[in-house]
Amino acid sequence: MKSLFVLIDNLIILLQYIPNSLRTGKDIERAKKAVIQIKNYTYTIKALIINHQTKENLKKLYQAHNKEIKDWAEQVTALFNKLDSLLNVLYNDTNKLERIIKEKKYYRWQAAISDMALGMFNTGLHDCEKNLERLKSLVIFKETELKEIIENQRHLAEINNQAKIDKLSYEEMLLAQEEYFIRLLS
Q1: Kindly report the CA angle at 55 between 51 and 59, in degrees rounded to 5?
Q2: 1 touches 7 (CB < 8 A)
Q3: pTM of the predicted model, to two decimals?
């Protein structure tokens, strides 16, 4: 689960760097790159979700039960439902963003970005933030398994670099993430 949440967190950070409006050619180019990156994250996140839902990996999740958290099995199931909702939002809204760019209806961009943010919020992933911490820390896949699941080398590197980022101070972490995502969309 840890690798999955690293990518979800990075996707949310990426969304902060998407232009709010498409007024210049530079904004449009950044928006195109952002849509491609969102699609890449969606694809990788979907692959991880599917692999977490195999019988063997679900068993690992359920065995990681923490007595302090009531209804662990139900919470794991609810999490997967919320993750499915997240994927639906990402698929639908990314397609909207792509159409806006393709059809040059740039005036719709800001509303579409707001809809995407609201849709992600409405998935409810933030509702169980306290209990998510336990799930976020679970390492289900070995590095060799991740290499088989994740095709995007950049996403593999993000997961592997997270341990380094976790050791930074909060300010250093923000700067490192900001530099990374600005480079990604430049």
Answers
A1: 105
A2: no
A3: 0.78
d(CA 157, CA 44): 13
Residue 174's H or E segment, with its range, is helix 170-185
Structure tokens at 162: 């997270």
pLDDT over threshold 70, residue 128? no
Q: pLDDT class for 77, splitting at 50, 70, 90?
A: confident
The answer to whether 53 and 80 are in contact (CB under 8 A) is: yes
User: Which backbone phi and psi does 85 adopt, to 5 degrees?
Assistant: -60, -40
Q: What is the per-residue pLDDT for 15? A: 86
- By residue count, the chain amounts to 186
Task: Locate 62 and state its tokens.
Answer: 């359920």
